[in-house]
Protein 1
Amino acid sequence: MRRREFIRTIAPAAFLGGFPAKAYSWVPFMKGLEGATDNDHVLVLVQLVGGNDGLNTVIPIDTYGDYYKVRANIAIPESKILTLSNNARTGLHPAMRGLQALYDNDSLAILQAVGYPSPDGSHFRSTDIWLTGADEDQFLDTGWTGRFLGQTYTNFPVGYPNPTMPDPLAIQIGSVISPVFMSAGGSTAMAVPTDTEFYDLINGITEPEPDTPMGNELTYLRAVARQTNKYAGAIEAAAKKVTRQYGGYPADNDLAAQLKTVARLIGGGLKTRVYMVTMGGFDTHGGQVQGGDTTTGHHAVLLQQLSEAISAFMADCKFLGVDKQVLGMTFSEFGRRIISNGSFGTDHGAAQPVFIFGEYSQTGVLGHNPDLATTTDVESNVPMQYDFRSVYSTILRDWFCVDPTDVETVLFKDYQYLPFMKNTACNNNYDNLNNAGNSLITNDPNPFVSSTTLTFKTAGGHTLVQILDVSGRLVMVPVDGTYAQGVYHVTLDFSGFASGVYYARLQNQSVQQVRTILKVRK
Amino acid sequence: MRAHNIGTMEQPIKQPGAMPGSPAGLTPYSGDWGTPQVVHLLKRTLFGATVQDIASFKAMTPSQAVDTLLQPTATPASKPLNNYGADPTGVAAYATWIDQGLLYQDDVLNSGRLNSLQCWWIGQLLNPGRSIHEKMTLFWHNHFAMDATQHFSDIPAQLWYNQYLTLRQNALGNFQQLVRAITLDPAMLIYLNGNTNVNTAPNENYGRELQELYTIGKGSGSAYIQDDVHAAARVLTGHTIDGNYNYVFQAGTHDDKNKNFSGFYGNHIVTGYSGPAGAGELDDMLAMIFGTDESAKFICRKLYRFFVYYIIDDSIEANIITPLATLFRTSGYNITSVMSTLLKSQHFFDLVNSGACIIKSPLDLLIGLAREFQLKLPDASSPAAQYDAWNMLLQRSIVLQQEIMAITLVAGWPAYYQAPEYHELWINSVTYTERNFYTDLLITTGDMMNGTTLQIDPIAFARLMPAPGDPNLLVSDSLDVLLRPPLSDSSKQLLKQSILLGGLTTDFYWTNAWQAYIANPSDMNAFTTVDTRLRSLYKYIMDLPEYHLS
């Protein structure tokens, strides 16, 4: 995609906020979010546009038979699945050797089945939900990152840049700034073009305007536009500080080119807190794999590009000496259906795996492989194990070191924290709860006809039980409150519900578990 | 004034012949008559080009289109209303103050009334009909520039309203009569000291500006001298106002001797008369001034710079200005006929292909935006809200350095005369920032005053497009209306894919989203999906430097 004509429009307007020029004066900070400005931590968001097929990305090995059964035409052969050290249950798509190596080198956390209750199948709506952090029936006009930055750097954009924050709060690689960066005071991000255009920009090279009178006016307007971008100089200076980068970036990989720009800016000392890069093509309704060899095809190419780009980026961060500053997160608007379609593809789904990469990610697979044994409905979705806002809340608390009371301010609710960060990142000392193998929620009878009794174990504090149907729709919230530590029972009335598989999801502080329950006819 | 020096980039186009099409001169245009040509004509003669106007004019021939645009519109029936609160002369809130309490001299009242008048004028600009009339009036306002804000204590606002009507009534008529009317306009008589210009001590102010700024100018063909300034001032003695601010000729203060003009005017002698006959010397002098070649050329250059392009090289002077001036003079200074020839010319439409854009003036930007996006403005049934809406646009035009009735320099807004920058003077790092801020504001939360909101409805605009469900056509059709310079196909693709499709590569996702909205407009989900993406699209377009070209 060519973006030449947009080079000089690196969205200065988004940065200029709602104030007359004379108001641009240094205003002392009001109280920002605790902790967030005290470190040099950087977050890199990697958006996979189109809805990534999580089940062919993070593949169940322990229940491989069930996996194969629901998607025989696109299933990755068991022998080709990349294994993970110290984890025999779960593996990666064979194209993702780079991510496998990161995992084996203690720099990759894999979160299973991240989503939200009652998922929306629209690309647009689900993207908006992920970017804003909204509930499925809530419409927000600010992004979760924008709220975080807007509240950390109070009054922005009035009084910025300033000695404490001389650089853009956030950078969007590309020409269109994501809604994720929208704060109440306007966008917190600046758009920076990628790759060769980026180098043109920082070297002051501009494509000649047409040799007409209009070219003359355009040159003038663009020059002024550039001049009004208060951050152009800072970006240029940071980029020029980096004269050499890691040489192993893959060619013909747009994501790698974007991440290379990010590494250069971080390496050059920009204090920018959040970057966003994007990669398209994940909407694999058809031709996701090539018949005959399911390890090849469109999805394999995408995952290889993703894996190689992240791998090279992390190597570059190490090369530039900023690897300890960087945490990355991949996400898509949704995962895809459990059962494949007849076109060697998959349709829009719900929960998806999320990768957290960086030295401070807590290597491991959080959550369990989805239970596919009971799946017969083609519209079945991977049930959510973790709310996506729990991922955000954990990043805010355990990477940006935001006080938990302030995290709730950004996300509007008290989401559970997840143990995917090393405690040393913020010198926090939370229990790294590992609930694998410990049944915290059960039900009896199961299967049941009209009612069943849940038994759940809470460590105390806020405890939530949600009942989701196979498509992920939230159908019941029998438990939502503060409980003392202990074991509790609650009887659920399923009369009036269709028979079939449901999921009972327990959430208690950083612990969650999903129990598959089955309603049958008499 | 100029914020940024772009150095050598200006040089190439200053060379003669750089503007393609100049040799074609004033030959009537006979080429394509498509959207780009119509949009070009409308953006230059109205304020912005609305979808409905584009369709209407497209159905005409170029000649019919120009003839239609040159039809005068009726004098506004509405009059400025009291939006300023307490009025010592007893004008009730939102009643008109025109012809009320004229003589009451009060700075505070006058400044309130001036704001009312400015707001009302913004209201006129917003509703030009399909006529150049309002834009021509603005042209003449800039030509006979004045700053009412410096005269709260000695020029009642009523006089400025009267001056607006004088400009408007003559805007498409006879230029010589317009000059005569303005010369005797009470506001002008006070503004340039005509009221104190007496035979015992002539005040040269108006006599000078009449020649330097209003009729002859300082171009290469201008050679009037100081003696001519003094002689003109003497001719004008006695033309003043009475105690009721009405024009009056006082023979007793008129210089009744002969006035000798220089060789530039053929050594013309304006014969002096005493008594009421002295008033007639003005027409003798105007006939002398309009007998020169230079006066017609001067106005034609100004019209060219305002409506066509700001660079007048030797080729333009020879092929456009000179024949246009001849026509102007032989028509007896008929403004409509000179505009007709200019706007129908091959040269005017060659600009579409040669890409000669001008930078939008702040009023072109603001009023054009309001009209193109068809902002919902309160109507006369809620006058407070209506004036607040007009006032918001007025306040922004002030920030952007184009306040009507407050032109600081008598020569007009510098963008229309100051070489070599001309229109570029509208743009500097502050005003560019403020332009972007305001377009962003209108497409996001909206501008607000006393509970009245000005906000772009992007869905309403998209609905005006022929095929809003097709993301390719939606982008290109929107650009056709909003941008004069064409964008490349790859840029259109970028707008479509990055914004309307959010990075997806399948067009029907937009089509589905649009159809879902049309099927159920009250569904919040369907509405939000298209509303946010359209806001993003139009915000992006308005943030392009190209958006400031017309």
Protein 2
Amino acid sequence: MNSDTLTKPEKIRCDACPVMCYVAEGKAGACDRYANENGRIIRCDPLTILDRQLEKGGEIRPFLKSDWDGKMLEGGEVFVSAIGSGTTYPDYKPAPFIVSRQVGGVDFVTVVTEAIFSYCGVKIKIDTDRHLGHEGAIVRASGEVIGHVMTGEYGSQMLSLGGVDHLTGGSKAEGRITCDSLLKLCNKQAVELEIDEGSKVVVQAGKAPIVDGVTETRMRVGCGSATIGMFASQWRGLVDEVVVIDDHITGVVSEHQAGKVLGWEDTGIKIKGRRSTPGRYFQVAEPGLGWGGTNIEDPSVILGPWNAKKGAKPGLRLMMVSTTGEQHAYYVLDDDLVPQLQDMPDSLLPSVQLIEENCEPSLCSVLFMCGAGGSLRSGATKNPVLLTRSVQALKTSVTCGGADVYVWPGGGITFMVDVLKLPDDSFGYVPTPAIVAPLEFTVSLDDYLALGGHQDAIRAIGDIVEHGGEYGANARLTAFGDKGD
Amino acid sequence: MLPDERRLHLHHGPIDLIVEAFGPERLQALALAEARFQTVLSELVEELKVLRQPCEPDRKFHGAIARRMQLGVEYFLPRFITPMAAVAGAVADEILEAMGAGEGIDRIYVNNGGDTAIYLSPGHSMKAAIAAPFRAEIAIQSTDHSRGVATSGWRGRSQSLGIADTVSVVASNCASADAAATMIANAVNLPGHTNISRTMALEISPDSDLGEQLATVDVGDLTDTDVETALNNGELLAQTCVHEGAIDGAMLILKNSIRQVGTMDLIHTNTGELAIA
């Protein structure tokens, strides 16, 4: 029965959407998402407050005033994040939360909003030796173009997904699939990507990539040449020749500088490939999903005829290994100087295992990148460019869901953040399509007022936790996201 | 797109749509739905004031959805009804039409909070679950006349002047089904019964199109006779609607009693201890 709450005639107007419902006390508007509680419009999703004291992965729990001993709010242990704060687009109104607190005796102000980004995307680093696709190749999700392959980095492949051209510059379906893929990636969910003339790869922040159905396990220890340099001394005496197969730089110990220094003797080996410097070969095979990021399944195919005049002789022992140590093979030259596959002697296994041990786990990293240069700045201050300048002068720090960001030099407020550092499900979307991300500006009170801040809208952090904001009385306390291992 | 990669969720203010299309051209159809959705709420808000007023015959609205609402409710004149009684169904119909079903599309449903508009290409059918205290499904074939399903009741999101737990209606379009479900649910009633609590609609929702009329807020114990009487009242209107071709069928549920009118054939009914009237 609701009759007791109906005796109060309080009704207020909700401005969260164009319907502008009048909402009676204790009731929700037509959407069931915003409600009137004690004469204020509240949003039903709770505002998130990040508690530095909670362990990583700590459970989200509802904040109850009666549980609060006040301690959590001292010494900067609690930070009001923008997740669930609501937004004030168009931004002529002050941001939903402008919070003051003391850190080290100085008053700080944090301006908190959920910002709508049309200019945004993700940069992805996939730890793999395997060839995923050529630089510049198109990356698709559900058949739509959502980005491209960037550079190959040391043991990793970079992708760029999203950006304004894919979100708003292409077809409706392209924008929608792009937005959907970005949202999933930012919220730490898996997305299957297909690279034109390349691989299918399942990407999820903090998880191993799955390339063409195979879960990647290890990142290579180094290029083939580097692997030779690291392990040449351990192979000495156990084997006569070692080839480390790598799509980029294949190494041959007897010819390599590292082998020469240790006194390795010539073996008369011939590698099919383009010789760069002694013991270092480019393009021994095509890129692929085989040994060391090549298309090689049988490593002996890269070997040419052995030259007896340069040291080849029957009984010569050869080890071939990939840059991760995952693949390895052992050969002995027969009387005709043809390598014959044999079981790897136990004495060599530790060195192969050492390569594996030195390889780090393969992971996907997802960095959200966006430009906060537009009208949202006026939610923070009345003179938007002053906020930009203050950020560039390092007086105002920018965080995204409580996580530190890297702000690009140059104009505007363009930043990148590791999505693993945010709590789960911090990102949202609007059908525009665009991504909604939490954003906080923190600045000393003096500087905030100097740059034309909304002084009247400043509230104490204890007040936020106790009373919530314009759209929310319920806060949740949660641990900061993964700070990275 | 929802995590299942099949259904599209469109939300703006009080409108929540779940849309799914089947067939090779499904993504194109979903993209058209999303494009059409962008301005739906603002179009409605423009004429909202008049849409909340009692329906008048032949009133002309600018917006396509508002016109669908007017068409959906006009049948019930001169009874009291506002175009808002068909808003959910009209939005579903409009989105469905915008999806341009044709070659490459087998089936579509546009579900607006339980009020659903359906497209079926020849030879296809759609099953729909009907709100009921037991498992109830209906199957609509491409050869059937019905392309809209809607449900109303005092427990639902919109206010009801009646006491039906649910009234589900199938009709040629969703706006008509929506309006009829609302009106039949209002008619399932026992005026003046002391175990029924009612409150002025505008006290619950100050913008309510029902104004000072008494909306049901609680239904207490009712005798078997009470239940039968209330259902009789609703069934009378439902039968009239079917007779005059305004709807194809209806199912009325109050407490543990159920009535079926017209062509609303349930499949899969686990009746349990229900009394089927």
